[in-house]
Amino acid sequence: MEEFLLQYWPLLIPIVLIEMALKIYALVDLLRREHVAGGKKWLWVIVILGINLLGSVIYLVFGRKE
Asked: pLDDT of 14-59, one tens digit each?
């Protein structure tokens, strides 16, 4: 297991950083909006934080209400 982590560490770091940046961006965007699709911000917080990587993308594509 340790060899696996050492071998793939350079690939995992950018993925983790991108995921964290997307989550932060999506949460900030969510908090700044008055209205979101579905009308429930708490539900979008669960989606953003609960679904790894895709949760943020799902919110940014479907949750933003212009």
From this structure: 999 999 999 999 999 999 998 888 888 999 999 999 988 788 888 8
This prediction's pTM:
0.79
First to last CA, the chain: 46
Three-state secondary-structure class, residue 36: strand
Nearest to 53 by CA among 10, 31, 23: 23
- Produce one character per residue of 6-33: b if its CB has 16 or more CB atoms within 10 Å, e if not: eeeeeeeeeeeeeeeebbeebbebbeee
